[in-house]
Amino acid sequence: MEQFDFDTLTDRRGTSALKWDAMTEAEQRDGIVPLSVADMEFKSAPCIQRALIDAARHGLYGYTGTDDAYVNALRGWMKRRHGLDFAKEELSIVGGVVPGLALSVRAFTQPGEGVIVQPPVYPPFMSVVELNGRKLMKNPLVREADGSYHIDFAQLERLAADPEAKLMLFCSPHNPVGRVWTEDELKTVWEICASNGVMLVTDEIHADLTHGKRHIPMKRINSSAFILNAPSKTFNVPGLQLSNAIIGDPEKKKLFDGELWKIEGGSMPYFGRAAAIAAYNEGEEWLTSALRYIEENYRLVQEFFIPRFGNSAVSPMEGTYLAWVDFRNLGLNGKELESFTRNECRLLFAEGYIFGSEGEGFERMNLALPRQELIKALNRLDEGLRRHGIYAE
Ligand SMILES: Cc1ncc(COP(=O)(O)O)c(C=O)c1O
User: Fold this and answer.
1) Which atom in ligand 1 lies closest to the alpha carbon of residue 233?
2) pLDDT tens by residue, 317-347
3) How confident is the model at residue 1 (pLDDT cuts 50, 70, 90)?
4) Given 87, 109, 213, 269, which residue has the most CB atoms within 10 angstroms?
5) How many Å apart are CA 143 and CA 29, to the nearest integer?
């Protein structure tokens, strides 16, 4: 098996990397450890780097279409990894999964109508609803005593039955709580939406990042489903801006494409295509190694928090590379917790409160980073907690 290097930290300063640019100059100098924005601190697979270098060498970067080489690579990947096939006619290309969510809001609802989301959830699920003048309808996830999250199906039924509810944006696997939904859960979500005439759009961007659990695409639950996915999280190529909308229902596809065409969107990015073909055809071994590395990082995080904060502090990370950690025992509100972790511990997390009020007192830690950086972060946290007086003497 090929060896891949996940241990080396690459200096991203000066590349306009969002995660690193979020730091002040002083923080960058001090070496604050960033565990925030959801991209990896790992270089992409060698096969992807080679494909991009070849594509760059070509020297001509003109308008590009969705050809069979791309569709077949994606279909092969989806069949092998997720047991799902789809037809070329069901595929639309979008410049990102978030734009896909926003276009769905515009395609399937009118201003003022309701969109169901499940906080704590990736913030754009809420902003694309509100910024487009639609009404947010919250079906908060329920946190169990062991730190895992479940869907409140009774409340979801009630929301879906409200005539205002027209669309549900469903995150599967779920960012930030790390759930990989079971077949029964997926079927129930599908049935509740279908029986109440609520359009369901499923964001499956984290589909390939699972740890011992099997992700089931919603399109396997029902062939007419609408799913969004991308190579971006899986292979750490979000800057190449390529994502897939796979829409089983032709009428719904017409509506979605109508919105896409209004912004003249939907074109294939030249470099994104080159990277994705290589990734889908040759990237599996790299992904397997990256997942193993992330799982070992997760084990270290559990080892750190369980003795300090208790067994339920870290929600089971069934999917994603994002650990969801309960800091509420510190007795700090969201802003105070942010100041503690950032200023006292010199760590940059994704603050729990950005995922909705349900995330207040939590932090989301990105575990796709070199182990030494994670260990540095945990040591800093340990020192900060000591100064905070969390440990009984
Ligand atoms: C659930 C989810 N959807 C979408 C995105 C971003 O998608 P894109 O960069 O393709 O717009 C993220 C990134 O963190 C995410 O976690």
Assistant:
1) 13
2) 999 999 999 999 999 999 999 999 999 999 9
3) low
4) 109
5) 38
Give the closest residue to 243 by CA, choosing from 49, 93, 124, 52: 93
For residue 254, give its domain range: 60-282
Looking at the structure, do residues 190 and 311 belong to the same domain, yes or no?
A: no
State if residue 97 touches ligand 1 by the CB under 6 angstroms criterion: yes
CB-ligand 1 contact for 169 (6 Å cutoff): no
> pLDDT averaged over the chain?
96
The CATH number covering residue 374 comes to 3.90.1150.10
CA 194 / ligand 1 centre spacing (Å):
25
Q: Which H or E run contains 370?
A: none
In-domain check, residue 54: no
Percentage with pLDDT > 90 across the chain: 90
CA separation for the pair 210, 372 (Å, rounded): 23
Q: Is the bond preceding 124 in cis, omega lying within 30 degrees of 0?
A: no
**Judging by DSSP bridges, how do beta strands 114-117 and 322-326 pair with one another?**
unpaired
pTM of the model: 0.97
End position of a domain, from candidates 282, 304, 320: 282
C-alpha dihedral sign at 268, 270, 273, 275: negative
